[in-house]
Amino acid sequence: MPAESLETRDRAANPAHAFRTYDPRLEPIAAKVLAQERLSAEDGLALYKSPDVLAVGWLANHVRERMHGDVTYFNVNRHINPTNVCVAACKLCAFGRKKGDPAGYTMALEEAWTAAASGYSEAVTEFHIVGGLHPDLPLEFFLDVIRGLKERFPKVHIKAFTMVEIAFLARRAKLSVEATLVKLREAGVDSMPGGGAEIFAARVRSIICDHKIDGEEWLETARTAHKLGFKSNATMLYGHIENDEDRVDHLLKLRALQDETGGFQTFIPLAFHPENTPLDHLPVTTGLTDIRQIAVGRLLLDNFPHVKAYWQMMTPKIAQIALRFGADDLDGTVIEEKIYHDAGATTPQGLTRKELCRLITEAGRIPVERDTLYRPVTRSEESFTVAV
């Protein structure tokens, strides 16, 4: 009998009996997880510090399968980065360029609209749009980008602008965050990505991204977006100068806001890539760190529907393993990812639907194509439909 069937049978008969660990700190945590009780900050620290990463992964996989069974989601999306010119000088970033830098670029409107349609023949269901904090581009430029995309691709969901970008655009336009979000929605923005959260701890943020909004303003911007009806994702950048306490603090602040608004769809842990950044003396994360972060995120964020193993950051191979450590989503086809490749990522620029399905199937999971709101997508030879 395949291992999958044995695990399913044991879990159904007696999940507590199936759990094994040589770390006694995990026993009371396992009892909470199996009883569907919320974990504490102390539990989170124990999960990070436990040497028994397989037991931590077992618990996260138990939660993942309770919520999603064997289903693993992906989508057909395209990343568009309209500019890399940025007023910030974050030590974590290899993407941004100062105004006047020969390596800086800013797309004209037609370039952005052309980029959306180029690269491959598969019809996208999502445009993922983020970029630098350009000192000269007004809010109207970005509204025009969105309007043009909606006019040309009316069926495509537009997931655009991080909380950092929204707060910056609001300040430049001398508008409130709420008024800025209303304008973006009227132009055609449907939801938001989760970038820019980094680590909320002020000590860490003052070193790695002191030019960005602080953690509380990121959360407040997300709160406003959610109250207006937007869905968003949430990220955490790990593997730089943060410690376990910082990570737990970050996760619990996300959980608290989710309790309040219910607006987060997916948690996305992002491994720091130090190459080509001022922090290039730091080591890259290990595979063990990557899969542990997926697992702890799944266990602490009990109110987040989804946890994503972003294959661009952790490589397709580690992302496959993460599907047994709590992740139920691999992101999508992406096509021409710039931000992490500027920081030395060696993963492919994009994957096809066929390649994503193979990764998921070989991990013993069931691939399900979704749209941005996690509605199943059904494709024919010429078109696609979204279940509503």
Structure report:
By secondary structure, the protein is of the alpha/beta class. The protein folds into two domains: 3-68, no CATH class; 71-386, Aldolase class I (TIM Barrel, Alpha-Beta Barrel), CATH 3.20.20.70. The protein has 15 helices and twelve strands. The chain has helices at residues 3-13, 15-18, 26-34, 41-49, 53-68, 109-117, 139-152, 163-173, 177-187, 202-208, 215-227, 244-261, 287-300, 311-322, 353-362; strands spanning 71-75, 77-80, 126-129, 157-160, 191-192, 231-238, 264-271, 306-307, 329-332, 366-369, 377-379, 384-386. The strands form four sheets. Strands 5-6-7-8 form a four-stranded parallel beta sheet. The protein has a three-stranded parallel beta sheet with strand order 9-1-10, with helices on one face. Strands 2-3-4 form a three-stranded parallel beta sheet, covered by helices on one side. Helix 12 (244-261) links the parallel strand 6 and strand 7 (264-271). Helix 6 runs parallel beside helix 7 (139-152). The longest helix is centred in the middle third of the chain and has 18 residues, at 244-261. The radius of gyration is 20 Å and the shape is globular.
